[in-house]
Amino acid sequence: MPWYAPRHLEEALALLAERPGLIPIAGGTDVMVDGNAGAAGREYLSLAGVANLRGVSETPLGLAIGALTTMTEIGRHPLVCRHLPALAASARVTGAVAIQNRATLGGNIMNASPAADNPPVLLAYGASVVLMSAMGSRHVPYAQFHSGYKETIRRPTEILGEVIVPFPPDHAHHYFRKVGTRRAQAISKVGLAAVLAGRPGSWECVRFGLASVAATPILACALAAAITGSDHSVPRDEELAEALGRDIAARDDIRSTADYRRRVAINLVREALAPWRSQGGFDASH
Amino acid sequence: MSNRSGLQAILAVPRVCPRKRGMKWVEDGTENALYTSMHDDTWGARVLQEIPLRKDGNEKVRGTARYVADVSYHGMLHAATVRTRQPGGTVVSITFDDHVPWSEYVVVTAKDVPGVNAVKMIEWDQPVLVEAQFRHAGEPVVLVAHPDPQALARAVAAIHIDERACATAPVFTIDEALRPETRRIVADNVYRDYLMAKGSVTDVETTTDLVFEGEYQTGAQEHLYIEPQGMIARVEDGVLIVEGSMQCPYYVHAALVAVTALPEDRVRVQQCTTGGAFGGKEEYPSHIACHAALLALKADGHPVALIYRRGEDMAVTPKRHPSRSRVRLGASHDGRLRFIDIDFVIDGGAYLTLSPVVLSRGVIHAAGPYRCDNVRVRGRAVATNHPPFGAFRGFGAPQSIFALEVALDGLARALGVAPDVLRARNVLVPGDISPAGQKIGGPLDMQRVIDQALEACHYHAKVEACHRWNAQGHAIRKGVGLATFYHGAGFTGNGELTLRSRAGLRVSAAGVVEILTSTTEMGQGMQTTLSRIVAEALRIPYEGVCVARPDTRDVPNSGPTVASRTCMVVGAILVQAARKLIARLCADAALPPSYSYEEFRAACARLPSSDGVTIITADYQHPAGRDWDESTFQGSPYASFAWACYVAEVEIDTTTGEVSVLDFTAAQEVGRVIHPTVAAGQIEGGVVQGIGYALFEEVRFGADGQMANNRVTNYIIPTSADIPPIRALFQESRHGAGPGGAAGIGELPMDGPAPAIINAINAALGTDLRHVPALPEHILAAMEGR
Ligand SMILES: Cc1cc2nc3c(=O)[nH]c(=O)nc-3n(C[C@H](O)[C@H](O)[C@H](O)COP(=O)(O)OP(=O)(O)OC[C@H]3O[C@@H](n4cnc5c(N)ncnc54)[C@H](O)[C@@H]3O)c2cc1C
User: Fold this and answer.
1) Fewest CB atoms less than 10 Å from the CB: which of A55, B224, B556, B747?
2) Rounded to the nearest 10 degrees, how much is the dihedral formed by the CA atoms of B328, B395, B357, B710?
3) Does B215 have pLDDT greater than 60?
4) DSSP strand E in B548-705: where?
């Protein structure tokens, strides 16, 4: 089985320009569980040894996270924990410890599963991604990255190089919750990330990312519009549910039901908005 | 999951200091003292004080244990199975594509079966290979083998089975099976219809103060042993040798003899290290063994390996029987049970296999450990077009106990009595007669078990705290629930009498004692437990005893490794064998009545024998006065029961319907603990499996009736992060029929967790859930409907 393991980015990009059929492989935690991983004709481009694709750094635009950075690194990184606590949280519930030691952020995005745990958070943080090829790099808002079920706008000659996450507003409320039935090694039935700052009438930031409620990870734009469009208070539950209903396309599948996903998604939205509800918190009992 | 606790058990055990050589083992022993009753308290006084390491621990921790998939032979062929796709029908033809060089392959169909084309568990109804008619998707039709796995895959893709579907729709549920106009798989779609009756329900029905009714359901459950099934067959010196992952070597042996028509002494079965079984390797290994053997025989005796991948294993091998129970409980105002009336039905799947015995155990346990003069339990096993359901830890009892224990909480609510009070008021005490007509003897005391459980977890304080918490309107709700139950050890009724097990000891001139038994180690700790029993009986160190590989050439038939019978039944036979050995050493080799280990070994060296080894065997002895009437379900169904009270504390997040088990208390009266870590490991592992049964594990069936979520990604079992602290508490009143008064405990812990957890959820939410698994989806819906 052909296996290329370049050490430099230029080398990797040149190889990919020559052989666009090469399958990039980072931690391999998705690639290797595919039953056909060893099938004849498959060729791999290992990114694991490529310098400069791994790590977290502070830039004027926000945090730049190399695509090869692992979940373990992200979950513990002081910059991530300080500025992007929801991302640290999602990294820490991706699979379990052994998986987190190998799984990369780039792999999680590129695998393009609607159930992946980190994409909703990146959507809520308004991240963008940098796609690199021998021809140069392009910078794409992450919200435009997933084009369909398991499809992205990546071209065969490109690799995902890094993810840029702008600093959220000070005092923002960061929310992440994965609902996956068990506490580890779970594929989410619903995942919600929210970054909220300001208050009714003067919202600075209202962004919700969701997993497992549509063919791709989604940014809930109708929901955000309903909230920012309501001047004096957070909209009533029915209005929130109606708006969210326009964002999501939940389905029945082997893991859960559309009905459960819709209900839980709205319950999580209410939980994320709880600090803006009337003083005494909220009552989730009905 | 018990692998987790198994591992814990291995790691947690302190090392034993080597004994001082030459120490007198029994200072005051006389001949007679050797033959003290097994129930005597001095039994176990010496060896059982220590906690030695597991016999199989080292090789498993170091990874040197060899499972069947680790075994390989020169020129070995790999095999695959081509199966039916529809839920019942007829095979019209089989086509083999031209592009494959078939002469390189070994291909087997029903035509190649030299003997009987069926495996008999109870009846000869399940074919080894489909001839024409079939009843479910996933039935084996063609077997194919080739030295190269990739070439094998190409052949599998080139074999086409043309099927004609049945004219009528398949039946997949108990209700569909019982409806008169649906497809008939067997007469009335009922395999067995049993009745256990005592007193008269009809006589008291109308005069009972309160009647509570409910319908309860339990789902199928997949064993998910860590090692998928597999066998390797080969012929050596004219003997067919089959080795693999299994619980019951002699079941496999009998199946091979029938299917190959070879004489018994030309068939040999060997167990490989087995990575978990839980009942799942009781029936099906016989099929895989026959498949591998048919291929090997056709391949001129070349070794053939038939190893299942996880997906195939989950799709086609048996699972726990789904069940439906209609329960009616009549009680007086003060909470005394006047009648118990239960209609219990299990889904047997497409062939009878073991369903009748699963059913009888379910029926006997259905009325629980309660005093009640009027009992009627009707039990039926029905036929559906699912692959057959089969043995799984608990064997029918977890299903019927779930129904009764959850219904009892319903009755408690209706009466306005606390659940623990209702149970205490009705639980059997010594002198009472059980629902099956068995007289309960002392010294065991179920009330003591209940008290121990409640005290250990501060039950009453917890119930109070949950009430206060829930009144505050948090999104998190809390609850406590309990279940009281017993589980009979050994084969049901006259089963042990029919089995007539035999086990033995092999002693070398060097004094090494090997246990000869067909009982298998599958992670449960049997080697450790039986070695301790023999060491204690011989009064030699644990290190001086080991267990021979279960190989039908070498070991007698001590029965299958099932039914919580190993310690109690096989252990007791081994004690007899040990006594015979000592008598022999005394008579023929001048072993003094009181001896040291050195003296024991010296005597072994003096034993006259032709080839340096001496084999002593002993046979099962049926306890006097243990009679059972199969037709009326009255008598003494089991030699002993283990008794238990389990308490679960849960927390439910009303935002998502997710349940966390916060704390679990498992108190049980087991007669005698032979090895504390092994015993605790059994309880913890069973509780974990029970938590999975209650909250996580849902077998989803596809339109073809096979398991659709046959992957570990989608069949959700609890992880270590989902498991609470488990408090395993033992009482040892020496009441059991096993060595030192031990009863069996292997299955017991599977019975209690599901009802305790569902009762806890209902207490927390005010819901009335009546089924498992109770998934978050169901819990959210139940909260809405409340
Ligand atoms: C047991 C188990 C549990 C899991 N649990 C979870 C979970 O809870 N949540 C979750 O979200 N995921 C889970 N996963 C999936 C997986 O671990 C993650 O998606 C992980 O982040 C993938 O990263 P990787 O580096 O291993 O990707 P790889 O397997 O190496 O690659 C994944 C895909 O991305 C492509 N790719 C990788 N890097 C690049 C790049 N830089 N540029 C272009 N293409 C690239 C590959 O070609 C491939 O298509 C689990 C997987 C396993 C096996």
Assistant:
1) A55
2) 110
3) yes
4) 613-619, 628-629, 634-635, 640-653, 658-669
Band of residue A278 on the pLDDT scale cut at 50, 70, 90: low
Distance, in Å, from the CA atom of A63 to the CA atom of A86, rounded to the nearest integer, reads 14
Q: Are residues B650 and B565 in the same domain?
A: no
Q: How many domains does chain A have?
A: 2
What is the C-alpha to C-alpha distance for residues B599 and B606, in angstroms, rounded to an integer?
A: 11
Task: Specify the pLDDT at position B442.
Answer: 76
CA atoms within 13 A on the CB side of B713: 12
Q: Are strands B89-96 and B159-165 parallel, antiparallel or unpaired?
A: antiparallel
- B775/A181 touch (CB, cutoff 8 Å), yes or no: yes
d(CA B403, CA B396): 12
Strand order, beta sheet including B613-619: B545-547, B513-516, B502-508, B613-619
pLDDT for the residue B625:
81
Number of H helices, E strands in chain A: 10, 14
Cα distance between residue B522 and residue B4, in whole Å? 14
Who among B473, B654, B718 is closest to A182 (CB)?
B718
Region A204-221: mean pLDDT is: 98
CA distance linking residue B730 with residue B444, whole number of Å: 12
What average pLDDT does this structure show over B128-143?
98
C-alpha B391/C-alpha B321 separation (Å) is 8
B36 touches chain A (CB under 8 A): no
CATH number at residue A17: 3.30.465.10
Q: Which of A132, A166, A200 is the last residue before a domain boundary?
A: A166
The string of DSSP codes covering B187-210 is GGGEEEEEEEEES-HHHHHTT-SE
* Element housing B336 (H / E): none
Average the pLDDT over B99-122 and give the result.
Answer: 98
Which residue numbers of A have CB closer than 8 Å to B's CBs?
A: 96, 179, 181-187, 189, 254-257, 259-260, 263-264, 267-268, 270-271, 283-285
Mean pLDDT score, B24-41: 35
Check the CA dihedral A13-A18-A21-A25 and report its sign: negative
Residues A150, A195 within the same domain: no
CA–chain centroid gap for B361, Å, is 12
For residue B612, what pLDDT is reported?
87
What is the Cα–Cα distance from B535 to B76, expressed in whole angstroms? 41
Q: Mutation test of the interface with chain B: which of A183, A212, A259, choosing the one with the most B Cβ atoms within 10 A? A: A183
Q: Is residue B703 part of a domain?
A: yes
Phi, psi (rounded to 5 degrees) for B308:
-80, 145
Q: Do B327 and B403 meet the contact criterion of CB atoms below 8 Å apart?
A: yes
What's the rounded Cα separation, in Å, for the pair B466 and B687?
23
DSSP state string for B719-774: -GGG---EEEEEE----SSSGGG----SSHHHHSHHHHHHHHHHHHH-----EES-
Mean pLDDT of chain B: 93
The residues near B243 (Cβ < 8 Å, ≥ 6 apart) are: B68, B71, B231, B232, B269, B270, B271, B272
**Domain range enclosing A115:** 3-37+55-166
Q: Which residue of chain B is at minimal alpha-carbon distance from A180?
A: B658
Q: Is residue B6 within a helix (H) or strand (E), and if so which, with residue range? A: helix B2-12
Domain count, chain B: 3
**How far apart are the CA of A106 and the centre of ligand 1, in A?**
8
Cβ B449 vs Cβ B731: under 8 Å = yes
Residues A150, A15 share a domain = yes
Print the domain residue range for B255: 68-167+223-316
Query: Phi then psi for A85, rounded to 5 degrees?
Result: -60, -30
Q: Model-level pTM?
A: 0.95
Question: Which residues in chain B are contacts of A271 at CB distance < 8 A?
Answer: 475, 655
Instruction: Copy the structure tokens of residue B204.
Output: 């008291």
